[in-house]
Design the sequence.
């Protein structure tokens, strides 16, 4: 990796450690912090799935393996969020929630979010196919684009919270980074694009996709009377 990329990665890691240190010192083992601990643990353990993903890519179309792997990880992240911030407050799982109700709430959450993630990761795949990116780009640019898309309304009213963006970006690194690392050397060569397109593309495109997906979830959920 070129020195400039190592410096970018190092600066981002330092920023992330600072954000998590401040958050945990301020809130301790809150439900949200426990959620993020679970997501961080999953991200670390998911590295073990790299050989399995590569074997799957030998048998099935590469884009299907990539999207399916990202969606599987997204389901794990959604599961971690059930104790803190599920899709809707009525779905939260706490100490008083029975196993049956917890599974029902998770099922409702995934029934709405997984179709949205299929759309999102299909768009991610299309970007990766059309523009040459590396793991640092996926960890920073793509995760930032997803975090801004998912939390756009929150950040628009509290822009100072952008300082803590890596806290949210962890969610999307846990979904996308390992599938990319496992499979990127098998991607067909992407057309070379100038830097001005490569850098802003995920920051612009992914929030738009999240807006469409989020609006669809709200409209569908209200129409069905789920929330």
Sequence:
């Amino acid at each position: 990796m070129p020195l400039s990329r190592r410096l970018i990665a190092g600066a981002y890691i330092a920023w992330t450690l600072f954000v998590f240190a401040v958050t945990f010192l301020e809130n301790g083992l809150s439900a949200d912090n426990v959620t993020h601990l679970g997501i961080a643990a999953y991200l670390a353990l998911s590295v073990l799935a790299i050989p399995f993903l590569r074997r799957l890519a030998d048998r099935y179309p590469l884009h299907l393996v990539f999207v399916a792997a990202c969606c599987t990880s997204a389901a794990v992240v959604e599961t971690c969020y059930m104790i803190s911030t599920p899709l809707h407050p009525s779905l939260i799982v706490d100490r008083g929630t029975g196993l049956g109700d917890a599974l029902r709430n998770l099922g409702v959450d995934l029934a709405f979010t997984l179709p949205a993630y299929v759309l999102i990761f299909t768009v991610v795949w299309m970007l990766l196919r059309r523009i040459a990116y590396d793991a640092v780009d996926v960890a920073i640019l793509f995760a930032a684009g997803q975090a801004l898309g998912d939390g756009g309304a929150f950040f628009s009213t509290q822009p100072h919270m952008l300082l803590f963006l890596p806290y949210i970006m962890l969610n999307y690194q846990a979904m996308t980074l390992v599938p990319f690392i496992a499979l990127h050397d098998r991607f067909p060569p992407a057309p070379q694009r100038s830097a001005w397109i490569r850098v802003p593309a995920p920051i612009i495109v992914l929030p738009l996709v999240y807006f469409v997906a989020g609006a669809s979830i709200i409209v569908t959920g209200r129409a069905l009377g789920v929330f």
Notes: The chain has one domain: 3-224.
